């Protein structure tokens, strides 16, 4: 098969990629602040220990062992070796082979931003870097500031004033050349069943509850449904006006989400209500990939990202997700990401495994006659680079480098 599908194999292996959703790496001082097992799970506490017994961990151990120069390593060998390395050397070793030409970074991770590198720091890996602005993080910062200011001007602490300030802040971000998208974590807070409207009394009561919580604690984690839904609607309107997409966490996450309400199918009413705004469904919507694919088929403004399943899902699971995605999703609406975060290993494994799985599935489709090789090659180029280039208005040309034989 290799001789027959040589072009497909080489393209999938080496074509430059746009990583349409990731997060900053930890600083050198904080490189051991989180367990490396977070590569395979977003679980917390004792549950994270079980991840080392997963097929995902077994496979990643072998792949990381190869690039680290270890012969049949254990998971503990991997951790010991990488922790002993100079952090800069480790990052370069793992980031350089990815061939990521452009990196879109959500730098609004709550509670860990001070432990991570600035988004501009990542340009050292020979890639351009753009920002994704997290909606809820912006809203929380505005509310905290307003509550503090209300000590001297209580009359200004109103829903109308908050909405005005949020609109102004998000509009400035949307107009920035450095910002290419918004992102919502509604899935983590109140679920994806986002209301297209709220009764004014319910909205005011929800805002009052959030305001009082913020005043008591000095900070806020917004999880007040009518108010949260209002915030998202404001952001969707601004994104549509400025022609930037809004990414939504869907599916795969930690125990903070309600799995039942993480299906992208719950977004259908708000998608219909905002036809001028582009929706990007993140993380393959796992395990709701087919639901996401359906939405991409019937709505012109919906796109599906197949990320985070690398390396969190086993190899055969990754292939199954891609097959489900291709059952119905138009190939010009598929985007790719690592969901890289904290550790350079997330970027390395995310890229390596995505290329491998994509090649294997497309090779099967060519072999059974569902695709020509030329069609498969174009799909690879589109989902790894050109679709994101178009959706995020990046204006890039692929940096093609032919490896010496």
Automatic annotation (TrEMBL):
Q: Write one Gene Ontology MF term.
A: hydrolase activity
Task: Provide the Amidohydrolase-related domain boundaries.
Answer: 233-370
Which InterPro entries does UniProt cross-reference here? Amidohydro-rel, Metal_Hydrolase
Q: Which Pfam families match?
A: Amidohydro_2 (PF04909)
Quote the PANTHER family the UniProt record gives.
AMIDOHYDROLASE 2 FAMILY PROTEIN (PTHR43383:SF2), NODULIN 6 (PTHR43383)
Its recorded name reads Amidohydrolase 2
